[in-house]
Amino acid sequence: MKDIKNILDDPKMKIRQYSLPEGYFETVEERVHDQIEASQRRPSLVAILRPAVLLACMFLIIGGIGYGTMKLTGSLDDRDRVTEQLEANLEGIEFTDEEAATFLETELSPAAFEEMLAVVYHY
Questions:
Q1: 67 and 79 in contact (C-beta within 8 Å)?
Q2: Are 120 and 82 spatial neighbours (Cβ–Cβ below 8 Å)?
Q3: Whole-prediction pTM value?
Q4: Residue 18 CA: distances (Å) to CA of 8, 28, 99, 104
Q5: What percent of the chain has pLDDT over 90?
Q6: How far apart are CA 20 and CA 58, in angstroms?
Q7: What are 28-44's pLDDT values in tens digits?
Q8: CB 73 within 8 Å of CB 111
Q9: Which residues contact 95 (CB under 8 A, 6 or more apart)?
Q10: What is the mean pLDDT of residues 56-70?
Q11: 20 pLDDT more than 70
């Protein structure tokens, strides 16, 4: 069997690996007091509004990228063309909102409604 050593007898274990900076405990109370005071201060208006402004900018950037992509691919032009075609087909036909709701409830099946949406929005 190996000899079991007491690790505390090892000279390497007696060397202090870590030490405190000079004057650490003299300044601890002051630093803690300063941190408490800093946490009790009211945040500035800029600090309050900054997250909201950044969120709004993010949505504008995402919307701009989406609009630019649709404009470059021609998706906006297709949608305008479909809208114009639907308006031309419905020209001269007048109906109230109640008549339209009744038609959709009675005459148009859910499958037909989904098919109409697929044609209008190209999905």
A1: no
A2: yes
A3: 0.38
A4: 17, 18, 84, 79
A5: 16
A6: 46
A7: 888 888 888 888 888 88
A8: no
A9: 103
A10: 94
A11: yes
